[in-house]
Write a structure and sequence with these properties.
The chain has 373 residues and is an alpha+beta fold. The protein folds into three domains: 88 residues; 64 residues; 149 residues, Histidine kinase-like ATPase, C-terminal domain (Heat Shock Protein 90, 2-Layer Sandwich), CATH 3.30.565.10. The protein is built from eight helices and nine strands. Strands 4-6-7-9-8 form a five-stranded mixed sheet. A hairpin with a 5-residue loop joins strand 8 and strand 9. The radius of gyration is 40 Å and the shape is elongated.
């Protein structure tokens, strides 16, 4: 926004300080003048009426003489106060605005793209220090977000390039070898294209969750968990797994579609990354005073805390959790869960089980009592 030039804040504060000093000095001098007027009459005339030899009429200084003597001193005092107020105000304003200058400099560097700079304003806590600390925290979060987005964009480009490169290779082979079985080619193209579609839909869902562009309504996580479990039950039976679901009503507020996708991703992840046979998935819901919990736990191989800490990152599957079949997903399952959880002002916790496998807990704010008509 283009703005017309104006007086600096330092100059405005200087003039304000000088004006206050002048006003205080003028009031003080006015009080002194009024005080003097109480004891000095307007005209004093003492005539001689005593014995011979006494002097004639005597005249002592009156108010006019006092004014002539007091006025130059007042003018000099006011001039001194003016100069003192301007000089002192300029110095004080400069010291007071020094933190603001550093904050402005950091803001301009951030606007130019330098997010690594921090103000780190020293001193005791006051309004400027709180502003500087809040700005440093904002820069840290913004830098982390930009870094995460750049890494996500690079990973997404890599993941999208893979099915396109495979498709290009298959088409080149089909064009060069006319006698090749087209049915096999169509099946492989169909599989690769399905993976690309799944990845694109996952990216769109992740973007929607990050933007928080969804409606909110009263939902019950226990019902959503039952629906997600019933949907994925055939996949669990195919893999020889057992799903156990238990819990109580867990009312919260949010997008039913997104919360269903979140729960489906958790259950699907627990099924796919499980033991080859005789594995188990536990889905439980519970209520706390101000929160509701959804916990999905599964058996599986032992996972280190270092590996678990990376599983919520996009396209991070963990070296011990990679699968080659289509059901393994595109590497965005837990990343989508994390984004949906954050969009609903909740927290996501991943904990490796001592016996192997993973426990994922989603905590969301509990819904207030719903009064329907």
């Amino acid at each position: 926004m283009d703005r017309a030039p104006g007086l600096s804040v330092r100059l405005k504060l200087t003039l304000t300080y000088a004006g206050l000093v002048m006003l205080a000095g003028a009031l003080l001098l006015a009080v002194v003048w009024v005080f003097l007027l109480r004891y000095v009459p307007a005209v004093i005339d003492i005539s001689s009426s005593g014995p011979p030899g006494t002097p004639g009429p005597m005249f002592i200084p009156d108010r006019s003489d006092l004014l002539r003597a007091f006025a130059p001193k007042v003018a000099a005092a006011l001039l001194f106060l003016l100069l003192f107020g301007l000089l002192g105000g300029w110095i004080l304003a400069g010291r007071m605005l020094a933190p603001l200058i550093r904050i402005t400099s950091a803001t301009r560097q951030a606007a130019d793209g330098s997010l690594s700079h921090r103000i780190e304003l020293e001193g005791r806590r006051d309004e400027f220090r709180e502003l500087a600390d809040a700005f440093d925290a904002m820069l840290a979060r913004l830098e982390a977000h930009v870094t995460e987005q750049q890494r996500f964009a690079a990973n997404a480009s890599h993941e999208l390039r893979t099915p396109l490169a495979i498709t290009q290779t298959l088409l080149d082979v089909a064009r060069n070898d006319r006698t090749r079985d087209t049915a096999e080619l169509v099946d492989r193209l169909y599989f690769v294209n399905t993976r690309a579609i799944d990845l694109t839909e996952a990216l769109l869902l992740l973007s929607r969750a990050n933007q928080r562009s969804f409606g909110r309504e009263h939902v019950d996580l226990s019902l959503i968990a039952e629906e997600a479990t019933e949907t994925l039950l055939p996949l669990a039976e195919k893999r020889g797994l057992i799903i156990e679901i238990a819990g109580e009503m867990t009312p919260t507020i949010g997008s039913r579609a997104l919360l269903l996708q979140m729960t489906t991703n958790l259950v699907h992840n627990a099924i796919v990354h499980n033991l080859p046979e005789q594995g188990t998935v536990w889905v439980t819901t519970s209520v706390q005073p101000k929160a509701v919990l959804l916990a999905v736990e599964n058996t599986g191989k032992n996972l280190s805390p270092e590996v678990v800490s990376t599983l919520v990152e996009p396209f991070q599957r963990g070296s011990q959790r990679i699968r080659t079949d289509h059901a393994a997903g595109v590497g965005l399952g837990l990343a989508i869960v994390k984004s949906i959880t954050q969009a609903h002002e909740g927290t996501l916790t991943l904990t490796p089980r001592a016996d192997g496998g993973l426990r994922v807990t989603v905590q969301l704010p509990a819904a207030p009592p719903h009064t329907g008509r």
